[in-house]
From TrEMBL:
Species for this entry: Riccia fluitans
Region named Disordered: 36-57
PANTHER family: ALPHA_BETA HYDROLASE FOLD-3 DOMAIN-CONTAINING PROTEIN (PTHR23024:SF24), ARYLACETAMIDE DEACETYLASE (PTHR23024)
Domain Alpha/beta hydrolase fold-3: 228-446
Top-level division of the source organism's lineage: Eukaryota
The protein's name: Alpha/beta hydrolase fold-3 domain-containing protein
Amino acid sequence: MASAALEFLRVGRRYELHVLPESIDAQDSVWEGNGLRSRSAGNRAKPGRGESTAEEIEEEETRAAAAFVGAFEFEERRTAPGAAVDEKPSKFLLIQIFRFVHVRLIGALGPLAGNRGRFLQLDLKVIQMAISACLLDVPVNNPKLKVPVGLKVIGEVVKGLNSLTRRKDGTINRQLADLLEIKVGPSEKPVNGVSSKDVVIDEETNVWVRVFIPEICESSGNQKVPVMVYYHGGGFGVLCANMIVYDRMCRRLARGCKMVVVSVNYRRAPEHRFPIAYDDSFKALEWLQSPRSASHLPPTVDVSRTFLCGDSAGGNIVHFTGCRAAETDLSPLKVTGMILLQPYLGSEARVPSEINLVNVPIISVDATDWHWKAYLPEGANRDHPACNVFGPFSRDISGLDLPPMFVVVGTLDVLMDHQLIYAQKMQEIGKHVKMKIYDGGIHGFYFLEHVGIALRCMNDINDFCQSCLLVQPIRIDV
């Protein structure tokens, strides 16, 4: 990795950072607080179609990654008041962040524009916005909570890109949102020990699922394999089952927990408001217990041991789908356990985490409010039962025979206190709830595969499932 020579100027709250790695010509790039000016990026187009070759793209990645790492190396020397670094990320992590933005995200726009190389300027501008936020070092209101610099960068990039898809009139720029949601197809050939296939379960609504089958199904003989139904997050309005992060997440769950995972692609708001997401999600259980699913599942699958799992809005869906399943005869399917990963919950009254955690990564109160308004019925507020599960208009679920539940909470999630209240209330009405709080966990931290608490969370999910199945826990090596 090339070293970087840096010149940094601060004018008020504006930063200008000149990044001059040895591998980059000094006249090629000037990195400013409002983005990167790349003097030659626009001249890298190929004749004809204008797409860069793989070698040129790799060269651009190397050059830009050097500048990206160099910007963080500067933080060791910066002296802005109150701007001490909480944690310096490794170069490996920084390069991974860069590759996520450049290759997986903005790089996807290049072919559409006919000149992939030009998007080096755009993705570095997005990254620089995040770096500027880190250099300004605006802390969360609670001084005891520290956000690592690397997570700040990831969070600011994701938060900024998500905000671009939300319109002021309450609609979503679906074309842009779909473009930013980098998708992957199913793979009949196993990837990391798991194969997958897509199946439409409702022709009328085009609701479909992605079925993940671990190789253990081929080698288990007559031993039955449990099922996990997974519901993705996204505030009921964005993200999808074939998005790369969910494809990878479900593969990890299938391989680690040794289960067939069925990931549901439900319809999204505001085009499809409450209760469409709940109805589509329950259809997945009806499909799973029906003969129609037999040809798409391995013969060893055991639907009498079915787990429901979901993150954020998907965690919310787990609650309502589990309650509906408890009132419905789905034989031979039986829900054995429910896993709610930082469930998306709320209320009209603000809770302390919404007030105190104003600058944490990934999501904000403004974003959660926007998505509730887009999903709930017209005129409803956040005390609607879909949002405030134990609010003034919510039904009594104390009589439902619900299975054991595992609730995951992160201390850097604005929804934290809503989740704590949920777990407490469920325990008060006699439900078996295991809750674990992950210190430093941002919203969606379990997707960060190389972060320690993500691995611990995956192991905890496995332990919970195995405890429900009454077998000795097996550690996950992901």
